[in-house]
Write a structure and sequence with these properties.
Organism: Paenibacillus polygoni
Radius of gyration: 19 Å
Number of strands: 0
Number of helices: 11
Keywords: DNA-binding
Protein name: TetR/AcrR family transcriptional regulator
Largest sheet: none
């Protein structure tokens, strides 16, 4: 493959091929040389955009975060429901079920014990996603479908728990232990006045962790 003379297209090619190789071989087993060979580009073309394989992973992560953010925005604009609670339930179920939103989960799961990765995940959830969820909760408070007096705090706690605490890879949990925590999350949100965790959402989250091999292998 000849080097693309358009930098933006070259960058997209690098990210697409890297994502493919990271998914197929795993991040640790994929080398810069593997990426170069698959692309058919010169080493200089790669290093013009990235200093290391870790930099490529960061770019892949950012692309995934951007896709998820756009998807959330589109769902907020287009999801029709009788009240804010039902709208939020529908949005959460669709996000978890969308394969493209989680296409890199298997790759990113290999970095789950990297402290910087975990911190980035926490910050993304609390700073970017939680305010959006909190806004819908505030709408629910107005229409009576959500009763919490702490929509911002509820949204932040929800994101922290679902992204970090629920993740079986981070804590080495099995399927049953994870399902128990999902039910606790459902119960807690209901008690807090933000009944947004449906049985369908629990099932989809549990399935997603199973798809990426997230559960402890002794079960």
């Amino acid at each position: 493959m000849a080097r693309n003379k358009y930098p933006e297209q070259t960058l997209e090619q690098i990210l697409a091929v890297s994502s493919k190789l990271f998914t197929e071989k795993g991040f640790e087993k994929t080398s810069i040389q593997d990426i170069i060979d698959e692309l058919g580009m010169s080493k200089g073309a790669i290093y013009h955009h990235f200093k290391s394989k870790e930099d490529i992973l960061d770019a892949v992560m950012n692309k995934q975060f951007s896709y998820a953010a756009k998807m959330l925005d589109d769902l907020i604009q287009n999801t029709q429901a009788s009240n804010a609670r039902e709208k939020l339930v529908e949005i959460l179920e669709q996000i978890v079920a969308d394969p493209d939103a989680h296409s890199m989960d298997g790759v990113l799961s290999t970095q789950i014990k990297n402290p910087q990765f975990v911190v980035t995940g926490i910050q993304e959830g609390v700073k970017k996603d939680a305010p959006i969820i909190a806004k819908i909760m505030m709408e629910g408070k107005e229409d009576g479908s959500i009763t919490t007096d702490f929509p911002i705090e509820c949204a932040e706690v929800f994101m922290l728990l679902v992204n970090i605490w629920i993740n079986p890879l981070l804590f080495g949990r099995g399927h049953e232990e994870t399902v128990a925590r999902l039910h606790f999350l459902q119960h807690m949100m209901r008690v807090l006045g933000a009944d947004i965790v449906s049985d369908q959402l629990l099932h989809k989250i549990s399935e997603r962790h199973s798809d990426i091999g997230g559960y402890r292998q002794d079960e």
